[in-house]
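Sequence, please.
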């Protein structure tokens, strides 16, 4: 502790006893103890603050990395969507054609799922008269 050995500590206590006197030595020791405890408390609070700052920095770095990953994923999805809009897959073309056929059948009233009492038929009958 500060490079002070037992002989040096005894010398310091003797000097303090001579300078301060025996009546005020306990008060001085108590004040020094409180000062030392306050110093340790402040040092520990400062260490905790640095630790919290380090934790916040780590969280910021993780958030930044996640944000970059999300933007990268979004740009990849946008590029994929643009590519598929210009060059749709055969499955997508089949789905589009199927949807157009169903739409045409519904327009003509030939849908296998529609019956004479279907809402679609009723709407077309109302508009045609």
């Amino acid at each position: 502790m500060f490079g002070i050995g037992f002989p040096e500590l005894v010398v310091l206590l003797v000097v303090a006893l001579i300078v301060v006197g025996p009546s005020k030595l306990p008060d001085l020791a108590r004040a020094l103890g409180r000062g030392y405890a306050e110093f340790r408390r402040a040092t520990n609070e400062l260490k905790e603050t640095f630790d919290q700052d380090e934790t916040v920095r780590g969280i910021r770095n993780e958030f930044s990395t996640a944000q970059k990953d999300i933007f990268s994923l979004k740009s990849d999805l946008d590029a994929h969507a643009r590519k598929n809009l210009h060059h749709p897959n055969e499955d997508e073309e089949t789905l589009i054609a199927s949807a157009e056929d169903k739409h045409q059948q519904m327009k003509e009233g030939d849908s296998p799922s529609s019956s004479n009492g279907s809402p679609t038929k009723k709407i077309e009958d109302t508009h045609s008269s």
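Residues 111-129 have pLDDT under 50 and may be disordered.
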